[in-house]
């Protein structure tokens, strides 16, 4: 569940908020004066994002090494396709883990 909390609330309730992030998968947006300043997400979600980032970076390097001259639109389409493929892979892995 995504939640928004004030900086002051986050300071006062850090332990309980972190428990929600860890135990329930909460995602917190921390605001100061109504402006989003940061996000707290579960470690596993962070790792997934980092894996996707590395995958996309590697794909980009492959294209550059092949001498491909992609337009910005083509690069964006490839990135979207890679993210979708990665999410599907993660979804299937999660379903497999739930069955085990």
Structure description:
The protein has 100 residues and is an alpha+beta fold. The protein has two domains: 2-41, YefM-like fold, CATH 3.40.1620.10; 44-99, no CATH class. Helix content is 68%, strand content 17%. The chain contains four helices and three strands. It has helices at 7-12, 14-24, 43-65, 72-99; strands at 2-6, 27-32, 35-40. It has a three-stranded mixed β-sheet with strand order 1-2-3. Strand 2 and strand 3 (35-40) form a beta hairpin. Helix 3 packs across helix 4. It is flat and about 55 Å long. The two termini are 25 Å apart. 1% of the residues are buried.
List keywords for this structure.
single chain, 100 residues, alpha+beta, YefM-like fold, 2 domains, three-stranded mixed sheet, 4 helices, flat
In short:
68% of the residues lie in helices and 17% in strands. The protein contains 4 helices and 3 strands; from the N terminus they run E-H-H-E-E-H-H.
Task: Round the Cα radius of gyration to an integer and report it.
Answer: 18 Å
Oligomer: single chain
Percent of residues in beta strands: 15-25%
Distance between the termini: 25 Å
Give helix and strand order, one letter per element, not per position: EHHEEHH
Question: What strand order characterises the main sheet?
Answer: 1-2-3
- Counting H and I runs of at least 4 residues, what is the number of helices? 4
> Would you tell me the overall average pLDDT?
87
Low-confidence stretches: none
How many structural domains can be distinguished in the coordinates?
2
Helix content: 55-70%
Q: Structural class, judged by helices and strands?
A: alpha+beta
How many β-strands, per DSSP?
3
